[in-house]
Amino acid sequence: MQTIVVTGSTRGIGRGLAVEFLKRGHRVVVTGRTPASVDPAVADLAKLGDVLGVPCEVSDHAAVQAVWDAAVERFGRVDVWINNAALAPDHALFADVPPDQLEATVSANLTGTMYGVQVALRGMLAQGGGKIYTFEGFGSDGMTNPGLTTYGATKCAVRYLTEALAKEYADTPVLIGALSPGMVPTDLLIYSSRSEDPAKWAKSKRIMNILGDKVETVTPWLVEQALANEKNGARIAWLTRARAMRRFLLPGYKNRDIVGEYEREYEAKS
Prior knowledge:
Structural class: alpha/beta
Helix content: 40-55%
Number of domains: 1
CATH topology: Rossmann fold
CATH architecture: 3-Layer(aba) Sandwich
Order of helices and strands: EHEHEHEHEHEHHHEHH
Number of strands: 7
Largest sheet: 7 strands, parallel
């Protein structure tokens, strides 16, 4: 039984990861920005196993440290730390992104990841080992798309951070790697990618319907791979280039409506 910290795990992929770790008998620390988001998530997840909820604004170093301290106080150690928490500004050309959204996105995605890695590194070096994973997203591979520049820039920086740290701490008992879920319909992906131009949004939806997969499809695989991995610097990617190419070639994927299903579910809950 291991102790897993997943930041930003009250909904979306983070929550899906928490569910899968709990199903496998592990203890999970769930974080969200406010008690209002953490408390109901913990109440629901507790039906699956041993879970601790800690409100955390990842752009606050002291708050991130408090997550580690609470996890160690409750469970004795942290075996895996996953930096999943992320934000995205409204879909807009860079000049039109409000400054507060720029700051919030960089603070959560880059500064928050740095704080998470630093806190986990210090703790794991002291306890004698562990695994730290950052989370990739659009832009990690250098791909660009109008309207997603801010988010993509932070994720590109996170990949550099991960690769640099894996080399920097290669001779330690702490493994540092990345998780790449591909395109998973969540409110972060859908509503940060939605263009006001109907034609552009229709094109984006077609691509996401071909390449996208649901949380419950992707997260079990990511969890199994993260637990089994023993390689420092590993990049655990669900949507490989080969898999993407096959999907564009196979006719069955052209009739999927992954995005539409998510939008209907999201709107029904709103």
